[in-house]
Amino acid sequence: MEKSEVETCFQKFAVHGDTKATGKEMNGKNFAKLCKDCNIIDSKNVTTTDVDIVLNKSARVITFEQFSQALTELASKRFKGKSKEEALQQLYGLIAGKEPTNVGITKVAKAAAVDRLTDTTKYTGSHMERFDESGKGKGKVGREDIPDTSGYVSAYKGSGTYDDKVKEA
Q: Where are the transmembrane segments (predicted)?
């Protein structure tokens, strides 16, 4: 098993859910997620408590070297009766090529009520003015009355004729 595949997996989980993460260090929450997603936690030999205990031996954030040491400890618990190296190789096999899964992502509602409420062709009154014929929003133009700053009174029929009258005189 390639150590680089495990390191790639480490980096993917290290940056999961954290926009500021560099991928060089992993926090405890992401380590626990890696253990859960890669089936290292099997609830018989390795539990979430075991993962927490192994993690608390090192710092709050772990580097790849500390991660490897933690995996070595967990491997002997997960695969009892195997040699340390064999257990570690099997653990690497669980981890290699895995990525963080997103369980329970909110999905877009596909209900008739939602379709009816978002159909712009059925809008009336001032709401109707906010959309063009295709149903695309007009933006600021559709939202507010933009004041006429030309200097003329609204609805004045001779607006824009001042310059012409001044030239004639």
A: none
How far apart are alpha carbons 31 and 5 in whole angstroms? 16
What's the chain's length in residues? 169
Q: Walk along the chain (169 residues) in steps of 10 and give the mean pLDDT of each run.
A: 74 81 83 84 83 77 85 84 83 79 65 76 79 79 71 78 77
Q: Quick one: pLDDT at residue 58?
A: 64
Q: Are 37 and 71 in contact (CB under 8 A)?
A: no
Q: Which amino acid is at 131?
A: F
Residues whose CB is less than 8 angstroms from the CB of residue 31 and which lie 6 or more positions away in sequence, other chains included: 13, 51, 55, 62, 67, 70
Domain formed by 1-95, architecture: Orthogonal Bundle (1.10)
Domain boundaries, the chain: 1-95, 106-143
Query: Percent of the chain beyond pLDDT 70?
Result: 89
Q: 3-class SS at 78?
A: helix
Do residues 167 and 161 make contact, with C-beta atoms less than 8 angstroms apart? no
Q: Render the burial of 156-166: b for 16+ CB within 10 Å, e for the rest.
A: eeeeeeeeeee
